[in-house]
């Protein structure tokens, strides 16, 4: 009797356990299917955009009002000389070098917000301006704007300098020397998630 009762209980327990396991598996399979299907291909893009909007709703609103066309791009100078074509790939760039002369006013190449201002590991003063379409990085200048400043295309943002890794025509560093003045300009296209050749955007 005792053995049969235990067996009976055991059978009931096993039955219950199997039922529970079935429920859990069913749950898991239905739970899994949603995130896998919904998040898989567009996860990075969609969630990044949403995160950006959620992180700084005020900034996005500010951008929407005074900031102009996010597709517009212009050279950072009225007149300039191209001193180097696309380069800096090992740095993660496809940048060009432009010069308008020592102390020339540098202008914002896009309508956007200053999102970063720092000196990189090579001593390059670095300014990042971005909007929903482009992230523009400029190096070497004396930048007068600060993070969170809203800038319109053509607004003065600093003056040309030779700070950081700049070279003379012989390839010698211009640190503490009167040479190598230029702006290193990189443009990242957020829609294609890739750097673009700035020449294609700024040449008329
Ligand atoms: Zn450069």
Give me a quick take on this structure.
By secondary structure, the chain is α+β, with helices and mostly antiparallel strands.
Main traits of this protein?
204 residues; alpha+beta; Glucose Permease (Domain IIA); 2 domains; eight-stranded antiparallel β-sheet; three-stranded antiparallel β-sheet; 4 helices; globular; binds zinc ion
Describe the structure.
The protein folds into 2 domains: 63 residues; 122 residues, Glucose Permease (Domain IIA) (Distorted Sandwich), CATH 2.70.70.10. It is 31% helix and 26% strand. The protein is globular and about 40 Å long. The longest helix has 38 residues. About 24% of the residues have low confidence. Strands 1, 2, 4, 5, 6, 8, 10 and 11 form an 8-stranded antiparallel sheet that branches. Strands 3-9-7 form a 3-stranded antiparallel sheet, with no helix packed on it. The protein contains 4 helices and 11 strands. It is α+β, with helices and mostly antiparallel strands and 204 residues long. It binds zinc ion.
List the helices and strands and how they pair.
Elements: H1 2-39, H2 43-55, H3 57-64, E1 81-87, E2 95-99, E3 105-107, E4 112-119, E5 125-130, E6 134-139, E7 142-143, E8 150-151, E9 156-159, E10 183-189, E11 194-196, H4 198-202
Antiparallel strand pairs: 1-2, 2-10, 3-9, 4-5, 4-8, 5-6, 6-10, 7-9, 10-11
This protein binds zinc ion (ZN).
């Amino acid at each position: 009797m005792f053995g049969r009762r235990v067996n009976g209980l055991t059978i009931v327990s096993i039955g219950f356990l199997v039922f529970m396991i079935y429920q859990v598996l069913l749950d898991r399979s239905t739970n899994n299917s949603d995130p896998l299907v919904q998040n898989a291909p567009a996860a990075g893009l969609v969630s990044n955009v949403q995160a950006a909007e959620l992180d700084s709703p005020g900034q996005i609103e500010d951008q929407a009002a005074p900031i102009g066309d996010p597709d517009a791009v212009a050279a950072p100078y009225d007149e300039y000389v191209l001193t180097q074509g696309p380069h800096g790939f090992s740095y993660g760039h496809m940048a060009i070098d432009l010069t308008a002369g020592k102390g020339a006013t540098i202008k914002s190449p896009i309508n956007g917000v200053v999102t970063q201002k720092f000196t990189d590991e090579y001593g390059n003063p670095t300014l990042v301006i971005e909007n929903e379409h482009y992230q523009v990085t400029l190096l070497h200048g004396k930048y007068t704007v600060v993070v969170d400043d809203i800038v319109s295309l053509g607004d003065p943002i600093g003056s040309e300098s030779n700070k950081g890794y700049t070279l003379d025509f012989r390839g010698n560093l211009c640190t503490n020397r009167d040479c190598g003045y230029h702006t290193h300009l990189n443009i990242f296209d957020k829609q294609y998630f890739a750097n673009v050749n700035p020449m294609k955007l700024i040449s008329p």
